[in-house]
Amino acid sequence: MQSRQTRHPGTGPVLYTGSTFRFCLAIVEREAALSDTAGTHARVMILFARHGLLDPDTEITPYERTMTAPRAVAAWQLADQLAVLTADHDTEIVTPPR
Questions:
Q1: Which residue, 16, 37, 40, 87, shows the most beta carbons closer than 10 Å to its own?
Q2: Over the range 16-48, which residues count as b (16 or more CB within 10 Å of their CB) and which as e?
Q3: Which of 44, 55, 64 is closest to 11 using CA atoms?
Q4: Any idea where the domains of the chain sit in the sequence?
């Protein structure tokens, strides 16, 4: 799946304009809000092919790279990012079904 992006720096929600991304982000943000109301903090992160996991408010420069590209973020880099993000928390990582 190719994402659609703007040409100017911005945050993930600003850069990615595709309907699938918007739909998924809305669901994840709603689930995070529901978790917060239940007393369990949930943090929303966006997976970028170039940067790995970033907070939705992080501003980046647009780029052309897919997750399947040879220079995409490597699994070990994602594992390192997750280790840092979850070091001080009792964490459950949820991924969509395949």
A1: 16
A2: beeeebeeebeebeeeeeeeeeeeeebeebbeb
A3: 55
A4: 10-86
What per-residue confidence (pLDDT) applies to 2? 45
- List the end-to-end C-alpha distance of the chain, in Å, as a whole number: 14
Q: Buried b vs exposed e over 72-92: b needs ≥16 C-beta within 10 Å?
A: ebeeeeeeebeeeeeeeeeee
Q: In this predicted model, what pLDDT tens digit does every residue of 21-78 receive, in sequence order?
A: 899 999 999 999 998 888 888 889 999 999 999 999 999 998 888 889 999 999 899 9
Structure tokens at 5: 């992006």
Task: Tokens for 27, please give them.
Answer: 């669901």
How far apart are the C-alpha atoms of 18 and 75, rounded to whole Å? 25
